[in-house]
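Supplementary Text 2. Reproducibility record for the structural model of the 97-residue chain.

All settings were left at their defaults, and a single model was retained for analysis rather than an ensemble. We include the record here because the model underlies the residue-level annotations in Supplementary Table 4.
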Amino acid sequence: MRIKNWRKFQHYNHRKPPWIRFYRDLLDDREWFALSGDASKLLANCWLLASEDDGNLPEPQDIAFRLRMDVKTVKTLLCQLSQWVDGYASAVLAWRA
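Retained model, structure tokens:
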């Protein structure tokens, strides 16, 4: 999986930057506000995790460990982030196998 449009949100070229850009445009993004509180929190945390590997996300099990969450919860919430995460559809099929 990979964060969509990662390059747009990064100008810091070194890996594992100490910060990410969080745009004010989110205040006017209906899709952002349509997310549940848990899904939007996971997305923000995924942006932080993705900053460690040029926009790529670790496997759900690793996300769950890093964020101290249940794997099932992470998988459920990731399914809600299709607008924000590339590769989620194929990943969901793989998780169910």
